[in-house]
Amino acid sequence: xxxxxxxxxxxxxxxxxxxxxxxAGRDFDFNIHTMGWFRQAPGEERDFVSAISWxxxxxxxxxxxxxxxxxxxxxxxxxxxxxxNNLKPEDTATYYCAASTYTMATLEGFYxxxxxxxxxxxxx
Length: 124
Description:
Blueprint: E1 2-6, E2 9-11, E3 17-24, E4 34-40, E5 46-52, E6 60-61, E7 69-74, E8 79-84, E9 93-100, E10 113-114, E11 118-122
Parallel strand pairs: 2-11
Antiparallel strand pairs: 1-3, 3-8, 4-5, 4-9, 5-6, 7-8, 9-10, 9-11
């Protein structure tokens, strides 16, 4: 199974980025997996950011990103997105996409597959 993130980069505070994560794999059924985003800042542990179930119901967000980030998925493209608005310097981190068979998992231990991560830097 491959999860490939894209869309990261450098942005000024208040700016926006849209991360994408494309899933592929011979026996991987995207439609039954909860998809999540996590992030890890330098010197910090990896933290939950957001998750969306296979049915796109009631996405979950970390308190630190509520109202600014929006997760969505396109099951026809095996892709999950993270729209990040009003970015702050504290959002600077490596962002990871992950897949879980547990509904709406927020703990990384429940995720079976991980992407390589993509850098997001918020700085003026």
